[in-house]
Amino acid sequence: WNRQPEIQGKYNIVIVLGGKGARKSLWDDPIVPQILTDHHRSGSIIGAMGSALIVLVRASLVTGEIPLPKDADSLKELETLNAVCVDIPVTHTNNIILGQSSDSVDSFSEKIFNLIDSDEY
User: What is the reported pTM?
Assistant: First the structure.
């Protein structure tokens, strides 16, 4: 998924968004965690918002605090996974940026652009 001849670093950022279909389409998908892990290892910025946070936690890419999701299903699943949720719009650790919900899109996007500009990832 990040391997194309003669093209290196094609995907510098991978963002997984929650929403109505995330629980059905992303939570139990066997390929998405592998893709995210590969991109994380290669140094890509990884972002997730809302109910897509579960995918990163299940892939063991998030070990610290994450934004408290606004939907009950996501919160219940994160509690099952022993995730530490805090009521803040965005968290950032190394090259992983997590957003609470669609209400935090502006600060989530700003954090991504700041990380790109800083060359810290």
Answer: 0.86
